[in-house]
Structures are given as C-alpha cells and as structure tokens.
Fold this sequence. Notes:
This protein is α/β, with parallel strands linked by helices. It has helices spanning 11-16, 29-33, 35-50, 67-71, 75-91, 102-111, 124-133, 165-174, 209-218, 230-242, 254-261; strands at residues 23-26, 55-56, 96-99, 120-123, 149-151, 224-227, 250-253. The chain folds into two domains: 11-128, Rossmann fold; 139-261, Rossmann fold. The strands form two sheets. Strands 2-1-3-4 form a four-stranded parallel sheet. α6 (102-111) links the parallel β3 and β4 (120-123). The longest helix has 17 residues, at 75-91. It starts with 10 loop residues before the first helix and ends with a helix.
Amino acid sequence: METKKIEVPVMAELFARGEKPEYLFWVGCAGAYDDRYKKVTRAFTKILVHLNISFAVLGKEETCTGDPARRAGNEMLFQMQAFQNIELFKSYDIKKIITICPHCFNTFKNEYPDLGGSYEVISYTQLLEQYITEGKLKLDAGKFKNTRITYHDPCYLGRANGIYEEPRRIIKTLTGEFVEMERNRSFSLCCGAGGAQMFKEAEKGNKEVFIERTEDALKVNPEIIATACPFCMTMITDGIKYKNQEEKIRNLDIAELIAESLNL
C-alpha cells in the first residue's frame, strides 16, 4: 500500500514567513530515532493534519527534555538541556506543547516550571479524546468493532499525572471488546523501562518486569495490547516476542489505532 506523503510544518520555516502555529508538537527522542516509534509519530502527525490543527515541529532544533539524565542522577546535564529548550521556546514564543511521550509530558508539565519554563502541556491522548468528545474527530468503529483490546497504563501518564480515562474512552469508541488487565490504572505495573532503566542492564532477580507485565496482558487473551508510551511499546513488543505471540497479538499505540480506523 502506498504511503501518502504529508508536509510537516517546521517552526523555524513558519516563523521566517511570519506565521505562528498554535501548538508545538514535541516529537521526542524515541519518536525521532526509534524505528518502531517513528510509525507512531507518523500516525499522530497524519491525525493532526486530518484535523487541520495548527502545529509545527522543531525539526533539527529539537533536542532531549533531559528526563533520562535526571532519572539517571545527572542533574547538571538535565538542567543544561532544560535551559537550552526553555531559551529556544522563548525565541518562538511557544505557549502550548503537545507530546506523544509521557516522559516528555511529565518533564515539561511538572519539572520545567521550577526552571522558569511554564507552558500548557497536553498529552496527545487528552487532545484526541477531546476532539472525539466534541465530535470533531469521528471514528469508524468498523475496523476494530469486535477486536479484543486491552490497555497498559504508562507510569508517567497514569500514576504521575492521573491520565487514566482518556485513553480508555478512545479505545471504547473503537471497540466493544475492551478488556482490563487485573492490574490497571493506579495499580498498573511498570513496563520496566522507566526511570532510565531502559538504558541499563537488568538487575538480579527471578523475572524481568516486562515479562511479568506481558503475562498480565496475556491473561485476558487480547488481540491487541494498546500502549501510549515509547518505552512501554518497546517492552511490551519484546514481551510479546519473548512469549512467541507476535503472530497472534499486535502492540499498537493509541494514535495508530485511530489512524488505522481512519485509513490515514
């Protein structure tokens, strides 16, 4: 199937023309560099264009929020990265930021204000749910109508920021077969990659966290495990492969579910 090309607005180019978008879409490191999560970036970008939302990306000017550095204990590097971003945002007069990564969302929303960077930070799940509720984003439930879907709560979306219902409302709009894992919402188990664990070797133990969490999902016999975080996607995908279930079960991001239902 031929992929339809879309033009992604870049902040510097818009400013050079005297235009100012309403939102900065912060792609994030995973969204820019991880081959699997690039697909999520494309899916969400197509949805933004479909909805005619005024947005732009930073492109080559985008760096890291500093979240992994702070989690790993390198406070100086975190602050250097944060101040660099804050100055860049100031130069473009950025007020509203949309993120697809909960780690970026949490850092911008809860940690940048301490350093003088206060913005309206919006998770893509919040934005998409709002557009669905307002009737501006009409989804065809046909594609996933009878598909059994479960959802894994990302730590930095759920426990850290209380965003539990929005992803579930989106999924329930798409399928009548939504099923909860036993451990969900505030009792959800971490995928095992947060807190910079993604970048270090596993510690001693009987079982890795991502295997335990994948087993939670497999207990409810899903056809799709929905995620909303690049770290979670990596770990759940690995878990599905570890359990030799990749031919039976798909791991899709919320944005991919919507893009597929709209044939974008």
